[in-house]
Amino acid sequence: MANTEAGWLSLTTCLVVGVGTLTALWLWRTCQVLMTFKRMGVPGPTPIPVFGNMLFMFKQGLNTFPILNKQYGKIYGVFMPSPVLIINDLDLIKDVAIKQFQSFPNRQIPNIFKVKPWNANLLSVRGDQWKHVRGILSPTFSSGKLKKMVPAVQRVVSNLVNNVTEKAKTGEMIELKEFCGWFAMDVIAGVVFGLQVDSLQNPKDPFVYHARNVLYGRQWVLPLYETLPFLSTLLNKIGLTFSPKESTDFFYNVTEAALKERRQEKERFSDFLQLLVEAEKEQEAQQEVDAEIDHRSQLHTSSQWTRKGLSREEVHSNALTFFSAGHDTVSTAMSYTLFCLAANPECLHKAQQEVDDKLGKKPADYSTANELVYLDMCLNEALRMFPPGFYTMRESIEDTEVGGYKVPKGMRAIFPFYAIHIDPEIWPNPTKYDPERHTPEARATRHPCSFLPFGIGPRNCIGMRLAQLELRMALAAVLQRVTPVLCEKSVYPPKSFEFGRITSTDGVWVKFQLRD
Predict the structure, then answer these.
(1) Is the pTM of this model over 0.90?
(2) Distance between terminal CA atoms of the chain?
(3) Rounded to whole angstroms, how far apart are CA atoms 353 and 349?
(4) Which of 56, 248, 428, 498 has an alpha carbon within 20 to 30 A of 171's alpha carbon?
(5) Helix (H, G, I), strand (E, B) or coil at 456
(6) Which of 491, 495, 496, 483 is nearest to 508 (CA)?
(7) How far apart are the C-alpha atoms of 325 and 360, rounded to whole Å?
């Protein structure tokens, strides 16, 4: 009996010593991390163990970086919960994103993107793999390829016009973020998967059901993934991923079926998957790419990289990611453009006059959509005030220097777009909606990094040209038929947003009135 008790005491002592040692090592490591910016001489808010500055950031939401920018200047450090360098100096942003791109070629991989089927998409792959995938995908968004996608967009725009006309006849109040989300979903269904879907009229369609699961998923797991990343592996193993497996499996099967059909070449499609198939075959050829997304001169892979084409995993992952990214970008930009126009009738009238003069009653196509200069200015001003993403991030792959500070390998840097877009030193009276800020003459006087809704440098948004095209076509079609006006539920300007997203908690409400 005594030996048994002694054994238990010995085991208990070992456990206590072991836990104590691990705790001490963890505390020591935490203190070392929290000293990172002090050793660098970089200013910033004082972090707390485990959470860093995340509790402050969750509380402040979109106001985080505007507040910290005023307090700490053009470059400072925060803990999210690991060290992150915040850069809001426009010249330094240009240096890091373009001139020093070889030192900062990667994005941080969000924890939800570290698992299949998300793990091989352009937002998460790094190094040679990213250069390879970006180089192959870039030509699929050239002007020539975008023209092939126009019929798919026009079909969805036609449905949009019918739906918006019905809403105008009934005088129903519309929450624009959701309404425009249906449109964005249908466009992606058409231009990515070659499917014809009317989400608003058929909300029980399997594509719509699974798409909503993929897009909105289990919202409650996101804070766990980002603030307590060590839990992500456990959550993945027990199936608590952001997107339910049944829905990601649905898109896997849809993609497989579409690829099989396209590879048989019995019919030529004008969607993204068809272009991926063609890109695999034509990868050795010189293909036209528009300047905004053509960074192939900076995408040279190392001599160790020999693989050609895209893997099946890369095709699936990027198809799913283009669906997800394209949905939120378009729905946010479209909803806030219509909302701002409803709140600013003089701008609305001018945009409608341009649409009438340039299009009459005809739908916009690739050429005429690009002639809607003032409408594009209205869109850009909405993107300034309400950019779909409020920051972007880069990660160093080597020790380097930024703004006179020595930046170690592995450190992440954030460019806070939203804070820059509402900085009164860059944009006077920033809360005023003023499309005239985006005339060619006004743009010429501003720093090129003062307006970054689609990112900057070789890792900017590869689908920006497609997003701009479908937005111009959709906005023109809506303004041809109806006039958006504020209603009883409208809260303009929006006062509160969800953390990390340009989604107003008050909603984005308007009514549509039929035009004479």
Answers:
(1) no
(2) 97
(3) 6
(4) 498
(5) coil
(6) 491
(7) 32
Say which DSSP state 498 is in.
-
Q: Provide DSSP, 105-134.
A: -B----GGGSSTTTTTSTTT--HHHHHHHH
Backbone conformation region of residue 152, classed left if phi is above 0, alpha if psi is from -120 to 50, else beta: alpha
- Which residue type, as a one-letter code, is found at position 195? L
CB 372 within 8 A of CB 472: yes
- Angle made by CA atoms 325, 326, 330, in degrees to the nearest 5: 120
* In the block, residue with structure tokens 């990515």: 192
pLDDT of 84-103, one tens digit each? 999 999 999 999 999 999 99
Task: State whether residue 70 is helix, strand or coil.
Answer: helix
DSSP 8-state assignment for residue 81: S
Residue partners of 268: CB distance under 8 A and separation at least 6 = 274
**20: number of Cβ within 10 Å:** 10
pLDDT tens digits for 111-170?
A: 666 777 777 888 888 888 998 888 888 887 888 888 888 998 999 999 999 999 999 999
Q: Give whichever of 122-126, 226-230, 235-239 has the largest mean pLDDT.
A: 122-126
Tokens encoding 183 = 């449109």
Q: In terms of Cα–Cα distance, which of 454, 416, 458, 404 is closest to 105?
A: 458
* pLDDT band of 260, cuts 50, 70, 90: confident
The span from the CA of 57 to the CA of 65, in Å, is: 9
In the sheet that 412-415 helps form, which strands lie side by side, from edge to edge? 75-79, 83-87, 412-415, 392-395
* Whether residue 499 has pLDDT greater than 60: no
Residue with tokens 């779909």: 388
Helical ranges in 217-271 per DSSP H: 221-227, 232-237, 245-263
CB 454 within 8 A of CB 464: yes
Distance CA 151, CA 142 (A): 16
Q: Of 371, 425, 436, 369, which is closest to residue 88 (Cα–Cα)? A: 425
**CA 7: distance to chain centroid?**
58
Name the CA dihedral angle for 368, 373, 379, 384, rounded to a multiple of 10 degrees. 150
Question: What is the arithmetic mean of pLDDT over 435-442?
Answer: 96
The pLDDT tens digits for 158-189 are 999 999 999 999 999 999 998 998 899 899 88
Taking Cα atoms as reference points, which of 291, 305, 269 lies closest to residue 133? 305
State residue 504 phi and psi, 5-degree precision.
-70, 135
Tokens encoding 462: 């590869």
Question: Whole-angstrom Cα distance, residue 165 to residue 334?
Answer: 17
User: CB under 8 Å to 44, separation ≥6 — which residues?
Assistant: 37, 53, 68, 72, 76, 77, 78, 86
Residue 471 has pLDDT above 50, yes or no: yes
